[in-house]
């Protein structure tokens, strides 16, 4: 055998067992190595301090002088000037997994167990000498990598040119076969680009010139680009990839997205190589979180449930990653991943005792200040829909079920086509169950495939009983379209699926194809509302100083899959919008508000955003041409007349935001529901304005009684004080609220009083009509609520005089026992998540007018069916008023229905 370098490399052998030293001398002495052997600690330190040492071979049982731990003594050796680049090989007479981990954690480059063959020993010594101390990249191997890295710089322009040409070619007319070839070429070029990036980083790490980016990025977009990179590799290796990233993980982050993606790409690539066709799961969970940063916990393993078979393919991968900087490893992927994790301030973890074999590391990333995190809130009326997941992989079911349940859906699972169809049939036959509204169908399963379920649904179920179907597959969509036959597919998800993409797809499918039994469709047919829109999570800012108007606009928008934020004045709107106008997709702006009106607010907002990027709609009762001109000059795109009409609002938003409008046609011969006609209140039109939500409409009527009486008293007091302008503003508020609730007669008289007060004309006749219509309208509302709830409005609010007395009298400290009993029942209903709690809530408001402002936070959360937060608000009310009612257990109602 011939050594690599004659008479130069120094190898120090430290072992009490002289037979081991003799063995090393026999194998290596004739190969030109300089060997020094020691059996005592004192002699070891003397030799180590004399000359630079290339390799130290030391027994893990070696007795050190100070009696310290093995790791501490090795650390002292590595601090010697002559041993800073020394490769330390640790030896043992018997293998132990725990001892092996201790060796590597102590900084060892290798772990050798006796006996060892002479050829293997020589190869190991030669390899360690060739690799050198990789931390300062001084060996021949490192120099070779540097030469390759320098050559790599010239490849970048050619790679960019090739990729640009491929993208241009993709825009031309291609045959199916050419398109397939081009797709393969594009993916190969992207993967080659990753290799080039790895080599570039290797060079920068070697020269200590690596600089990290610090830019805002979206985690979901990073995962989507990661999926594009991994698709071809996963398909060629027949590996199922899954992304397990819960919705509570922050999405808007600051860091180096390109290198984070490359870390994940390198590690998953290695996992697919050693996994030999087993599933690979990337999990990201949120660890420690504060206002400025979040610690993300990354894991790459092969299962997430205990029901699956045990995989041990990744058992050594984490260990290889841990030792990649000190141990000779053939994978540059692991070396680059390890170095980048360290450079980004992260840490690779040993496998936890309870965790599955795999790779585990964490990173602390800054949170973006101007967050673009979209809300993953599902409209209230969609949360109780039933979803069936059909998949043969337990991990896939667990990951997808966790995401869907977090959105508020009721989820079941089936592992094959037959059990899935049985579950769908039982949903229609069992009176205690609701039919499934949506099926998430894995396309490629053992035995019967996804298209077999589509055929059974088509052949054995009536069309009105067909659930919506979203196919989940790693196959190309064109292949699935060929196989599905006549079966109907409503959506498509390509594995691996991020939580954000799943949310968007479900919302899109639900928005365009609501189940025929859904309340929104039934309400539209019953009350004549013919328009629905899939808002797709777009964020709308509603600016209005009247709570009733805010609630109506909010209900209409949330019911059509928009996100809603509220502002009560123009000043509030400016504060919200101007720092980050890109966070909003449109603004509904009331014109007449205190502090700052809508026109002033729009002029300021237009200094930071134009009409095309942020549409602003004037919501106003002033619809004359001159009023429209004023709005246009201020920078508004369009106007929406008051009282607010849901169909008109949705059509305007859809037109400016490029959304599809879905019409719900009323079937011929369908008779309108029988209802009593009233003189002042058009109940059917009012319910239509809140998208058929009767519960909300009757709650708003009850709120109106209390608010209108208070504002009426202010009108009288301001008129007596000669404050006619202020009185006209209150009359305008009453008119607006009455119009939005379809209290037509009162709206008309309040508007007439407002005009008379503003014009400084004789207001006595309009005031008389206003008083009459106010009393009559509230009496009529009392009849409506009595018919709906079997309760009545307190006599104190039925006429203006008693309302004045009620508002001015002090509240009695004595608590009515009947009220306490009803509040306890109300609490129990919320604890059991009973929908009747909403009815009980506004029955309490009707019977006890003093509760309206105090219980409003509770009612706001009940309308959203958020029972946990409603109970939190109810407990606060109990504490504040010192009521003799036990506090509710807020954990008992954490599941939003």
What structural class results from the helix and strand content? alpha/beta
- What is the averaged pLDDT score? 77
Share of helix among residues? Answer: 40-55%
Poorly predicted regions: 1-7, 133-141, 516-529, 665-674, 802-815
Q: DSSP strand (E) fraction?
A: 5-15%
Instruction: Tell me the span between the first and last alpha carbons.
Output: 75 Å
What does the largest sheet look like?
Answer: 7 strands, mixed
| Envelope shape | elongated
User: Rounded to an integer, what's the Rg over CA atoms?
Assistant: 36 Å
> How many strand segments?
24
Compute the number of helices. 32
What this model shows, in words?
The protein is 49% helix and 14% strand. It is α/β, with parallel strands linked by helices and 897 residues long. Strands 6, 7, 8, 9, 10, 11 and 12 form a seven-stranded mixed sheet that branches. Helix 9 (257-275) runs antiparallel to helix 11 (332-343), helix 13 runs parallel beside helix 14 and helix 29 runs antiparallel to helix 30 (836-847).
Question: What is the element layout, followed by pairings?
Answer:
Elements: E1 10-14, H1 18-28, E2 34-38, H2 41-50, E3 55-59, H3 70-78, E4 87-92, H4 97-105, E5 110-113, H5 118-131, H6 140-170, H7 176-206, E6 215-218, H8 219-237, E7 241-244, E8 252-255, H9 257-275, E9 280-289, E10 293-301, H10 317-322, H11 332-343, E11 347-349, E12 358-367, E13 386-390, H12 394-406, E14 410-414, H13 417-429, E15 438-442, H14 450-460, E16 468-473, H15 477-483, E17 491-494, H16 499-512, H17 519-527, E18 531-533, E19 539-543, H18 547-558, E20 563-567, H19 570-577, E21 586-590, H20 598-605, E22 616-620, H21 625-634, E23 638-641, H22 646-657, E24 661-663, H23 683-689, H24 694-720, H25 724-740, H26 744-758, H27 764-789, H28 800-808, H29 817-831, H30 836-847, H31 852-863, H32 867-881
Parallel strand pairs: 1-2, 1-3, 3-4, 4-5, 7-9, 13-14, 13-15, 15-16, 16-17, 19-20, 19-21, 21-22, 22-23
Antiparallel strand pairs: 6-8, 8-12, 9-10, 10-12, 11-12, 18-24
